[in-house]
Amino acid sequence: MAEPDLQPEVQERRPAKMSMAQHSWAFLKELAVVVIRAIIVSSILRAFVGQMFLIPSVSMENTLKVTDRVVVEKLTAVQRGQIVVFEDPGGWLVGTTTPQRGPFGQLLEFVGVLPDTGTEHLIKRLVGMPGDRVVCCDRGGRVTVNGQPLDETSYLYRNTSGQQVKPSDIKFDVTVPADRVFVLGDNRNQSRDSRCHLNDVQAGSTKGENAFVSLDLVVGRAIAVAWPLADAGQLPTPGVFAGLPPAGPAPVAPVISAGPEASC
Fold first, then answer.
1. Are the C-beta atoms of 184 and 195 separated by less than 8 Å?
2. Is the confidence at residue 64, as pLDDT, over 70?
3. Mean pLDDT in the chain?
4. Peptide bond preceding 137: is omega within 30 degrees of 0, i.e. cis?
């Protein structure tokens, strides 16, 4: 008598149902991975591509107003006429304060979600590149770069009556040294910019060297106001800077002629 074939009993295996606690834990783990990746990406973008900064003072009015949030890009080299953010060369920041954020706000600032409120940065308009001769002023009261006067009426500060500030009450004649730039605020009467440091004497440097910002300290150029919406918009480079004569050879040390008023 033949033995019957033995057929093993096949049982369908179904995954065990997850409890509500397990579902919640799995969701939290997935969310944590997404957040960590987002923080890493944001941090990389902040470090190498772009960053937001909070305007702390009136030195760039009316182009930029106090508490405006500006977007700064870090990929391209800076040029004349652009608005640039840079680290304090030393002794420029006096009496500038910004509200302190809590730990969570500081984290969001670190990853680039909130604008940088640190007081170690300044923002000005780049007027002179290495080798440029910047003078104030010609017979028309205008700042000149390599002998050509600047028509600055499109961005210099105007008060509520429409009266525009002078390009500068401080007289100077400088040649920008190698690897440095010369910067001015748009609100010239309220800006402690390169003009105000031409008589600085610091240990280990020549007189007035502190007035010229090292390119190593330049974070990048401001390309737009992001907030508030009423001020939002691009920050183009004024056309007057497009046709300036080329710079000459950049000296190792700055060439400076300035009176005692260049210590504002």
1. yes
2. yes
3. 84
4. yes
Stretch (H or E) spanning 31 = helix 20-48
What is the spatial order of strands in the sheet that 172-175 belongs to?
A: 148-149, 143-145, 133-136, 172-175, 255-258
Q: Is the pLDDT of residue 205 over 80?
A: yes
Q: Where in the chain are the domains? A: 24-258
Q: Is the pLDDT of residue 22 over 80?
A: no
Do 188 and 196 meet the contact criterion of CB atoms below 8 Å apart? Answer: no
> Does residue 221 sit in helix, strand or coil?
strand
The C-alpha angle 23, 25, 26, rounded to 5 degrees, equals: 65
H-run or E-run covering 175? strand 172-175
CB atoms closer than 10 angstroms to residue 202: 14
**Do the Cβ atoms of 205 and 155 come closer than 8 Å?**
no
Class of domain 24-258 as given by CATH: mainly beta
Dihedral sign computed on CA atoms, order 166, 169, 171, 172: negative
Tokens of 180: 């440095």
Strands 69-73 and 83-87 come out as: unpaired
Within 10 A of 171 (CB to CB), how many other CB atoms are there? 14
Contacts of 242 (CB under 8 A, 6+ apart): 81
Q: How many CA atoms lie within 13 A of 229 on its CB side?
A: 0
Q: Is 183 a residue whose pLDDT tops 50? A: yes
Q: How many CB atoms lie within 10 A of CB 113?
A: 14
Residue 168 CA to residue 78 CA, distance in Å, equals 23
Q: 3-class SS at 22? A: helix
